[in-house]
Amino acid sequence: MKNIVTTLVLLISFTAFSQFNYKVSKENLFGKYNPTAPKQLLDYQDLIGENKCTSISRNPDRTWAKPVHMKWVWKYIMNGMGVQDETLKMDGTHSGSIRQYDKDSLRWNVHYYTSRATVKQLPVWHGNKKDGKIVLYKEQPASNGMKGFYRLTFYDITKRKFKWIGEWVDEKETIAFPTWKIECEKIKN
After folding, report:
1. Nearest of 46, 62, 60, 50 to residue 86 by alpha carbon
2. Contacts of 49 (CB under 8 A, 6+ apart)
3. Residue 111 included in any domain
4. How crowded is residue 160: how many other Cβ atoms within 10 Å of its Cβ?
5. CATH of the domain at 146
6. Hey, which of 88, 94, 95, 122 has its CA 20 to 30 A from 56?
């Protein structure tokens, strides 16, 4: 009887712990993609890890500010069913996003947060990967009231580097005004 109980406890423990094979761990510092998750999670596979980056954004007078060095860490979360990123900037501003692929709407939902402000509802960008670029949009009028979007684009993505640009675009995307650029290099997988 004692052997049966011991075997049963070990079997239940093994089964319970083996259900979380894709979470962040000592063996998988940035988690792993869960094969039962939407395949679109692999859109971010080359970004997963720790990256050293240079960020440059516009000043209020529309000139480019001095570059800010930052670390951008990407990992699989929710047992490999989502992606999270976190930025740690040398200027003390930190931010991140939770990324989930919606199988019903067939698009990414990206929820953004920052240490600059606490908001009641996180802003959300939507988009997809196309032609090697991940492009996300959020409705946002221009400062003059013109309808448009704030567009985020990840591009030149390889296993060792990537670039990112944030820009305001009009509804037809014939006008684009870049406001933020980031270039990154992988330092840890």
Report:
1. 50
2. 30, 73, 74, 186, 187, 188, 189
3. yes
4. 12
5. 2.40.128.20
6. 122
pLDDT digits (tens, 9 = 90+) for 128-178: 999 999 999 999 999 899 999 999 999 999 999 999 999 999 999 999 999
Strands 68-77 and 176-188: unpaired
Classify residue 157: in a domain, yes or no.
yes
Burial class (CB in 10 A: 0-12, 13-18, 19+), 132: exposed
> Cα dihedral sign for 44, 50, 56, 57?
positive
Instruction: Spell out a b/e string for 25-42, using b for 16 or more CB atoms within 10 Å of the CB, else e.
Output: eeeeebbbbbeebbebbe
